[in-house]
Write a structure and sequence with these properties.
By secondary structure, this protein is of the alpha+beta class. Among the domains are: 111 residues, no CATH class; 112 residues, no CATH class; 117 residues, hypothetical protein PF0899 domain (hypothetical protein PF0899 fold, 2-Layer Sandwich), CATH 3.30.2320. It has twelve helices and 20 strands. The strands form four sheets. Strands 1, 2, 3, 4, 5, 6 and 7 form a seven-stranded mixed β-sheet that branches. Strands 12, 13, 14, 15, 16 and 20 form a six-stranded mixed β-sheet that branches.
Amino acid sequence: MVETFDFAGYVTKNNIKCSDGRTIRAGAFKHQDGEVVPLLYMHDHFDPTNILGHVVLEHRSDGLYGYGKFNNSAKAQHCKEAISAGDVAALSINAGHLKQNNNRDVLHGVINEVSLVLRGANPGAYIETVSHGDTREGTVYCVTYTDFEEDVVLEHDDFIPDEKNVINDVIEHADEEKEEEPKVAEPKNAPDNEAVDVKAWYEGLSEEDRENVDLLVGLVLDNESAGNDTAEHYDDGGYDEMGRYNVFENNGETLEHGIDFKEMIKDAKRLGSLKDAFLEHSDMLMHGEDDNLTDPGITNLTYGIGNIDYLFPDARALTNTPEFIQREQDWVKVVMNGTHHSPFSRIKSLFADITMDEARARGYLKGHIKQEEVFGLLKRTTGPTTVYKKQKMDKNDIIDITDFDVVAWIKAEMRLMLDEELARAVLIGDGRSSASDDKIDPLCIRPIYTDTDHDFFAFRVTVPRGADEDATSKNFIRKAVKSRKDYKGSGNPTLFTTEDVLTDMLLLEDDIGHKLYKTEAELATALRVSKIVTVPVMENISTDGKELMGIIVNLSDYNIGADKGGAVSMFEDFDIDYNQEKYLIETRCSGALTKPKSAIILEKEVAGN
């Protein structure tokens, strides 16, 4: 019993199958309830400065609990800070003098020490929190095991230090009467289900084989002492003067991660080679059964080549450059190629309104005075704005990309998106908030849909919402045709609309189920337009409680002007301080309808209005 503790947790849990096949059963360490054992770091028994403090053990029904207390050494205080920060959270035990049964269930043993380890084999074993001067009767912070199918930081040594004892298939509880030990068969002829005298087998090896075994065990121990998350067989006297390790010259049985020699001997008889068996067990020790460096299926391979997929050719790209995920772009070309272009950006439109009665010609009545004609002049001026795209890349990245010309690819994307933005601004505006710094000025590139002078340049027509989609589509066609009487634009215009509106019109049928319009060309003729162009960015656009369905306009009546030097230009610059290539594409232009009544905006009321 201690008055205070620095951390607490389960040092071992019952009925969990460990990585070496053993399972700690209830009561295996019950006799150590209340005992104090050293607290070490990474099971290092050779450096006394690795003794960090002590752990008070407490028997519980589901395992053995521990209350840890750090000493005042520099290493102990460093580890205390590490667990407080959550950097180290796993616990592991070192135990010896084990008793086990046929199923390799550990029924009895003695815990020599508890260690802090960097990473437990069971990812669920961790110190959840750390106490701050709490008493043992205070809040308990325990190690939890979230997945009993995973390995825990616990393995068990088979070796009994007493020469009279051998590794028995049946090992009794410590407090029970021992049965008569089974007879040991000769190692060379012993069946798998009989006990094997490992010491006799080892002594029967040639000097060369002994050296090989000692060397391999030493290599495994060196690997694990360097930080491997599995523990190893070692104890006082385990190393001789030359640093070699004799597995049978230890004075105390230890319980940690290590090679199961009994299983290794059985595998040696199965494989016909001690070397193959030992390498197989060493690989499992160093990498684990689930390590990606090994393929568990290879050991069961009965034909062919293991990991044959390593020989498969690498996957190849179907195109040299990545393909853009983009909206359909055909409408962009129609807009950019269809508009009128002028070599100046400041556009002034002058109009004389002669539609009023005062501008009409008059009849003369003898004796009356002749009246002068009166008509007004209208003017609108549109100035330019700048639209741009900017990009940069590290010079090293450009050099390292050798499969294609990444600079040309980026420039193509910049021009593509610049053209789309200009086309969007011409038809419906860029859609950004008026408070956004990135918004394209609608007074410089005037959208046809939201032209501030739309009553004069683009007039609106409301399409009644029908009982269903067919009825709404028929209303759209009717309104589009009838509104042509007010259209004053050039030639035969184009209908810009959405895929949904176009599809609904093409699906119209007569009373006997025949389609009214077999092709888009037939529908365009019925609408009195030259062609129909679908625009993805027109989807779900609405204003003033009305949803946009289509725009009928001849884009030759829309002028895009740019002064010399204001056309689309690409600029490049190298930032020597940051080793970066920078790219800029921009244009400075204006845009506006130049003829009155040259566009028809077709809208329907939003549902619920």
